[in-house]
Amino acid sequence: METRVEPRLLKGFRDFLPEEAARRSAMLATIVRAFESCGFSPLSTPAIEYADILLGKYGDEGDKLLYRFQDNGGRDVALRYDLTVPLARVMAQYRDLPKPFRRYQVGTVWRAEKPAHGRFREFTQCDADIVGTSSPLADADCIAAVAMALKGLGVERFKVRVGHRAVLNGVLAAAGVTDPAAQVETLRAIDKIDKIGEAAVLDLLSELPGVGREAGGRVLAALKGDAAPAGDGAGDGAAEAAAGRAHLDAVMAAVRAMGCGDVAAVDLTIARGLDYYTGTVFETTLLDLPGIGSVASGGRYDGLLTMFGVPAIPAVGISIGVDRLLAALGELNQLPAAHAGPAAVVCILGQAGMEKGLALLAAIRAAGVAAEAAPDPDARLKKQMEHAVRRGARFAVLVGEAEVASGTAAVKDLAGGTQESIELGRVPGFLAGRARG
Amino acid sequence: METRVEPRLLKGFRDFLPEEAARRSAMLATIVRAFESCGFSPLSTPAIEYADILLGKYGDEGDKLLYRFQDNGGRDVALRYDLTVPLARVMAQYRDLPKPFRRYQVGTVWRAEKPAHGRFREFTQCDADIVGTSSPLADADCIAAVAMALKGLGVERFKVRVGHRAVLNGVLAAAGVTDPAAQVETLRAIDKIDKIGEAAVLDLLSELPGVGREAGGRVLAALKGDAAPAGDGAGDGAAEAAAGRAHLDAVMAAVRAMGCGDVAAVDLTIARGLDYYTGTVFETTLLDLPGIGSVASGGRYDGLLTMFGVPAIPAVGISIGVDRLLAALGELNQLPAAHAGPAAVVCILGQAGMEKGLALLAAIRAAGVAAEAAPDPDARLKKQMEHAVRRGARFAVLVGEAEVASGTAAVKDLAGGTQESIELGRVPGFLAGRARG
C-alpha cells in the first residue's frame, strides 16, 4: 500500500464526470424508451467472450483490433467488438428462444484502434435487432425505432439512407459490370461519393479493368434517385436483384405508412464494409453535420448464425453510435438537458436546526426531489449558500433556530432570488411542484 | 467465415435474456432514482485501467483475482475489480473537482474467482460515495441512500449494521487485548460470529496467545448491544476510540433524524476485510435471508487517495451487490415487476389493413405504449393472436378490411377476454390509459 502511482487513463479511454455522465444517461434513456416503445426487449451479454466466438466475424482488420488475451485459466478470450456477434451467439446457443426475437442492447465495446478525434478504444453501442423473420416490416421497424429515438432527442433534420446489396449488384450487372472483382472495386469507388464527389468517382471507375468510363457512367446514372433499375432479367443475380428490389420497395412502403417517409430514402450508393450484411443496409446522416458520418447503421445479415453451426436465420438490425451522436448533439447545441446535482440543498444552521433539518431533507427526497444537506452545519449561512450555488441547486432550504421555533423553513429560489417562509410539512410538496414546473 | 464454432459462454459469465434483463433494469432504475434523490451524481470510468492503478489495493488475494493482461501496445492493463479504486483515481487525477464530491456509479466489475452458486466472474456493482468531508452526515447519507433504494424495491425487513474500526480497537484494548497481532486475530475470530456462533468464537479466542478465555469473554460482552465502552482513556488508541465513538454516535443520530432509525443499528462485530477501511463500516442484512450475507457494504476509507500521491482526503461510501440482491428478491418473491415484451400487438389482416395498421402502430408507439406488429400480415388471425399471447402482450389490436372500411380497430383485452371496436384515432389514447391503469 505504499507505492505511489501516477493517476492516469489509458489513451482512447474516458472518464465521464457528472455533468457529461448525466447527459449520456439522459440520452440513453431516450433511446431505450424509443426502442422499448417499438417492441424491442433488453438483452445483456458478457463483456468477455471466448476468442473464437468473435474471430473471423469482422475481417482480418477487425481480428487485429480485438482486445484478446489469456485469462487466469489460460483460456483464449477477447472483449466484445460489437453487440451483433454476441447476439448471434445467443441465438445459436438458446435455440428455443421464440422468434421473431426482438432485442435491444446498450453496451460497451472495445476496439484497439489508433485513438483520434472522436475515435475511442472503449465506446458505447445501442443496438436494435429482429432475428427470425425476413419480413420487410422488420427492416422498417429498425428504421422506425431509430427515427423515434432521434426525434425523441430533438433531432428533426436527419435521413436514414437505405441500400440493398443485391439491388446494387443488379445495377452493376445491368450497366455491364459483370466481373466479380470489378464489381467489388466499383462498390469501393462508389463508397467514396460522399467524400470525393461523383466526378472523381467516375474518374476512378474509368481506370478500373472491367468497368471503364462508359459502364461507370451508366452505373452512376442508374444509382441516382429511387428508380434504379433492378437489371433486365438476364444473367447471374438478376433474380436476386428483382427480389431485393421487391423487398426494398416493401420496406419503404412500410416506413412511409409508419410516418417516417420524410426521414428515410433509398440510396443504393451505400455499400457498408462489414462482410456479414446480405440485404438491406442502413446509414443515418445528420443533415446539418453530413461530415461526421453515419450515426446509426445496420442492415440484414441473414448468414451470421451459420458460423455457429446453425441453419441460416434471417436477421436485421441497426446500431446507434452513442458517442458520435452525443458529440454531434453538442455541435448542434442540442445536448439533452440534464442536471447532475441536487435540486435543493438544505442548509442546517447549527445543532438547533439539525433534527428538523434532517427530517425535512428525508421528506424532500421522499417527494422525489433530489436533495442534500450542506456538508457543514456549523458553517456560516453564507458558506452554506455558496455550496448550494456551486452544486447548481435551484433551491436553498434554510432551517435554523428561528425556523425550528416557528415550524417553518426559509425557501430561497436561487434562480429567481425570491425567498419565502413555508411551513415544514408543506416544503416537500412545494419543491416537488416547482421542480416539475 | 467457414469455421464452425460452438456457441458457448465462459464459466462465471452470464447472458441475461429479456425477462431477466428487464427485471435487472427495473431494479437498477429504482436504485439510481434513490441515489439521485439523495444528491448523488453519476460518474462513469473505463472498464480497463493501467494495472498499477489497481494493484495492491485489494490485498495479495485481490491482486491474483485481477483480469490482467498486456494490450496490443504492450501496456500492462487490468479490468476493474470494483468501482472504489477507480473513484480514488478520478479524485487524484482531477484535483479541482469541487468537494464534497458525491457520486454514484453503476458498473460491471470482473474478478477471476472460482465460480460458485451466486459467485460470478463478471457482476454489477452500484456504489454511492462522498469524498472530501469527514462529516458524519456523509456516513449517514450513504445509509439513507441504501435504505431508500431497498424500500423503493419493496424490501422493508432489512438492517444496515454500522461498525467502527477505532471503536472496536478501543473495546479490545479495554478488554485487555493490547498486542496488535492478537487484535488482528481477535477481529478475524469475531468476524465468524454470524457463521459459527458466539460460543465457538469464545473457544477460538481462548486458544489465542495474548487473548485467552477471560479477555475473550470481556470482548464478547463488550460487543453486545450499542453501549460498548470506548476504552478507559488509557493506552494507545484510546483517543482514536473516543473520537470514533463520537463520530459513530453522530452518524446514528443523523440516521434517526432522517427516519432510518428502524433499519440501522450499531454492530461493532462487523470487521470488514478490505484493508482500506479506516472508520465506520457498513453491512446490510436482509432479515428474512440472513444467510446470504451482506447486500450493501461499505465504510470510511480516508487513506485511499494517498496511494496516488495525494494528501489524505476523507471519503465514505456504500456499494449494493446487485446480483446478490436480485437473487434475494427472487427468493423472497419480491422481484420487480417488469415486462420485457410489448403491451400491444397490432394484427394486420392482409394487405387491406397494411397502411392503416402501420399508421395505427406508429400512433400507439408515439403515445408511449410499447407495441409491435405481428410479423406476418398474410398469416391467419389465429396465428397472429398466438404471437400476441406468446409475447405477453395485454392487447391485440386487429386491423383488417372491415376495420379499414369502418375506420375502427378491434381491440381485444387478452387478460380480460373482452373485445371492443374503437375508432382508429382513439385507440392510442385508450391503450395508454389502460397501460397506466
Please state how the strands of the largest beta sheet of chain A are arranged side by side: 1-5-6-11-10-9-7-8
Strand content of chain A: 15-25%
Counted by DSSP, the helix tally of chain A is 16
Low-confidence stretches of chain A: none
How many strands in all of chain A?
16
Can you give the mean pLDDT of chain A? 91
**Alpha-beta classification of chain A:** alpha+beta
What spatial form of chain A do the alpha-carbon principal axes imply? elongated
Largest sheet of chain A: 8 strands, mixed
Distance between the termini of chain A: 51 Å
Biggest interface and residues each: A-B, 103 and 103 residues
Gyration radius from CA atoms of chain A, angstroms: 28 Å
Oligomer: homodimer
Percent helix of chain A? 40-55%
Describe the structure concisely.
Chain A has 437 residues and is of the alpha+beta class.
Provide structural commentary.
The structure is a homodimer of 437-residue chains. With 437 residues, the first copy, chain A, is an alpha+beta fold. In chain A, 41% of the residues lie in helices and 19% in strands. The first copy, chain A, is built from 16 helices and 16 strands. The first copy, chain A, has helices at residues 18-37, 51-54, 59-65, 84-93, 136-152, 165-174, 180-190, 193-196, 198-207, 212-223, 238-257, 322-331, 350-366, 381-390, 401-406, 427-436, and strands spanning 41-42, 48-50, 68-70, 76-79, 101-110, 122-131, 158-164, 264-266, 280-286, 296-300, 315-321, 344-348, 371-373, 395-399, 408-413, 419-423. An eight-stranded mixed sheet of chain A has the order 1-5-6-11-10-9-7-8. In chain A, strands 13-12-14-15-16 form a five-stranded mixed sheet, sandwiched between helices. Chain A has a three-stranded antiparallel sheet with strand order 2-4-3. In chain A, a hairpin with a 5-residue loop joins strand 3 (68-70) and strand 4. The radius of gyration of chain A is 28 Å and the shape is elongated. The two termini of chain A are 51 Å apart. The relative contact order of chain A is 0.11. The interface between A and B is large, with 103 and 103 residues.
